[in-house]
Structures
1.
Amino acid sequence: MQRQTVLVTGGTGFTGSHLVNRLIDEGYCVRVVDNQPGLFHDQLKARGADITIGSVTDRDLMFKLVEGVDTVHHVAAAFRAINLPKAVYYDVNVNGTRYLLEAAEHHHVRKFVYCSTCGVHGNIEQPPAPESAPIHPADYYQQTKWLGEKVAHEFMERGMDITILRPAAIYGPGDPERWAMLFQRSKSGRFLMFGDGRATYHPLYIDNLIEAFMLAMCHPAAAGQTYLIADERYYSLNEIVGMVGRVLNKPVEIVHLPFRPLWLAAVACEVAYAPARKPPPIFRRRVDWFRQNRAFDIGKAQRELGYAPKVDLYEGLSKTAQWYREQGYM
Ligand SMILES: NC(=O)c1ccc[n+]([C@@H]2O[C@H](COP(=O)([O-])OP(=O)(O)OC[C@H]3O[C@@H](n4cnc5c(N)ncnc54)[C@H](OP(=O)(O)O)[C@@H]3O)[C@@H](O)[C@H]2O)c1
């Protein structure tokens, strides 16, 4: 039987590279497009991934790469870079999504999976939030992910088989940034918590998310549906820091400080760094971590797709810590 070809956008990034590895493990022929080689280019290439360095905003390139493909997993996003002009977020997250969908429709792709974000719901007033909870993106990145969902709906109405995933806070080996800071700060034995630390946070271990991508790709019930994807349960920030301490085998003293001065400092940093187009040391999206409530109901994915997150927080954090040690992040 001929092997099916799958295109993964953002395939050399954190999530994309895990997905590419899983698809290769399962015998798929994998194409990747990403605007940079990232940490995993050589490893994925050695495993047989066909990698193109290019942008999802290049419409002609998307038409070329989508030809002959069975499934597109659209994972690429302008996401980590901070202080990008709004036009860049829009171009990548909205226009790029449209170009890929146009290409997929043109080439009669069987399945399209769009990776959105739980952030489209913003602060969760009534936890845990299901997919039908109000849409309140908290920043421009999240707004453009929501606009990307709307573009996907246009194509669903025209008959395409599309599934939208809204992942919670993804973590695991391969993510060099955000959770590394949590580990680094906890390792010192003293964690500065701005606010009371009772805001909720819903982690998502990378292997659990990859399972959801595979279900979205293969399960017939996923057609035309949107799913919040997260680990089995959510935690308070104080609990998350406590668990990091357990994994590091180190008691962590949580020192509480007021949130408002941090928020004002973040605003000032964004303004000060904007002319130089340099990433500010702190910015609103990052400091919002201390106050946004993120707690989701994953029942729909469990019932309809049989989604069952296997890796719990302790195991996931232990594997992540091991990777940080091996890579010298900690
Ligand atoms: N991480 C989370 O907690 C989280 C939570 C919810 C949803 N998500 C969504 O999950 C997806 C993956 O996130 P991630 O954490 O794996 O991020 P990531 O590591 O930044 O992966 C995204 C990849 O896409 C690339 N990319 C950016 N703009 C591109 C373009 N114009 N054309 C082609 N490739 C481009 C990025 O390159 P650059 O590094 O050069 O930008 C990066 O390699 C994103 O869609 C994000 O919105 C993430």
2.
Amino acid sequence: MSRQALAAELQTAADSYQRAHVIQHCAVCANPCCRLDRLVLELNWKQVKVFWQLDESRAAFDRRLASGKGPEEIRAADGLYFAHRKVCPAYDETQQSCRVYDQPIKPVGCSDFPVYADGDCLTADLRCEAVDIDTLSAWVVDALGPETRVVQSADRDFPFLVSLSVKRRGAKPQARARRA
Ligand code: SF4
Ligand code: SF4
């Protein structure tokens, strides 16, 4: 199997795991990631403008932010914005749900969290209480077949990030039938 095909299958496995084990748990999560008390939300200007309901220009907002008069939970860097330590404005605390869940404005990182696929590797963020790393490993083997080997390793600096490195042995060539 090519690396590309393996990456595509891993992405599919990650998506189906999220649907089966994570998304349905969000409504009853004891510590929702959307409160941003542990996670940092990466945003582009359009997302900031919509979520914080701004009617000023980007330049005016940037000046306000730089002068310390902007939303204290937002930092700007490298053309992007990072929100932390206050509940995401798109989060509905009562329903425990995202108000922009199915909309293109939703940040990409929100859809990926807590399982990220990258090439032949999946990374799970165990700060999400719905993720169980052994269940995820078994899910990958189930999805990719019994010849799949999964090796777990925790990040040295951020041990809540656990990588699953996936290898798949090629199928053995079938023995040719002997001619009589
Ligand atoms: S931490 Fe996990 S279960 Fe909780 S709201 Fe976020 S994605 Fe859902
Ligand atoms: S955009 Fe939605 S999913 Fe993302 S942090 Fe805000 S409420 Fe949560």
3.
Amino acid sequence: MRILLTGKNGQVGNELNKILPQFGEVIATGRNEMNLADPSQIRRVVQQVKPELIINAGAYTAVDKAESDQELAKAVNGIAPKILAEEAKNKDALLIHYSTDYSYNGEMNHRPYLESDSPAPNSVYGKTKLEGDQAIEKSGASHLIFRTGWVYSKRGESFLHTILTLAKEKKELRIVNDQTGTPTWCRSIAEATCKAINNILEKREDSLSKTVSNISGVYHMTCQGETNWHGFAQMILELSCPDNMPKLLAISTKEYPTPAIRPTYSVLSNSKLKKNFGIQLPHWEHALKQCLSDIS
Ligand SMILES: NC(=O)c1ccc[n+]([C@@H]2O[C@H](COP(=O)([O-])OP(=O)(O)OC[C@H]3O[C@@H](n4cnc5c(N)ncnc54)[C@H](OP(=O)(O)O)[C@@H]3O)[C@@H](O)[C@H]2O)c1
């Protein structure tokens, strides 16, 4: 099978690019091969590659920057997924796409969010990502939208990377403790995506896209458990520099204002993913330990 992957240099895309070849030929693209802000280039690349599966791991993920860069965020997060979905529909390809816990407003206070809960994003990033999800849903293409959150890796711009860097430079860190979510290792997402593809291949009757057509939709895909950013930082420091930990102070979101409003609570129930695909991601603490001990 031919797989077209976007966002090959991102956290999730980089992990996918390493493990997707088990399924066939992977045509991995980054900004240089396919600019997601350029609809005609997207159409041209999809038409050249003729994929059976498109995996869109590319996105405009700078949550605060998006507040003042709305047009580009909308092009990459809102319009590009629509074009990919239209092309997938035309070519009878399956589209796998990633969405965000920032699709929800965070006001849920008694249980994790379900896919049936209404999205109501607070930020430009969340709004543009939701536009992309809704365009895919409307397109009629076979699709799986994996909605995840708090994605981290040792490389790139993630929270984990920031804490590891600051721990070497500072004696004291002030970290927000009133936003609750689930840290999710990018490799856990890539592995769960591959399990879903395997599951579809086992059931395959006709094309990949036809096999998925009646289970298309949004699926929450995060690690298990929950914490806040302070709890996440605490665990990172305990695991990575137990004898040389900077002092960790808990502060409120009000004490650390950012351009984008983030949800207070964005824990996602993964029960639909487990029910339809038999997939469960590891507990966030377990995944973090694995990530920190990974030497690849
Ligand atoms: N990061 C999180 O905490 C988080 C949380 C919830 C959901 N998600 C979702 O999970 C998915 C994967 O996120 P991630 O954390 O892997 O993101 P990431 O590390 O920021 O990677 C995104 C990739 O998209 C590429 N990209 C951005 N603009 C582009 C453009 N105009 N043309 C082509 N490529 C472009 C970036 O390229 P460059 O490397 O050249 O910049 C980057 O490699 C995304 O859909 C994201 O919305 C992420």
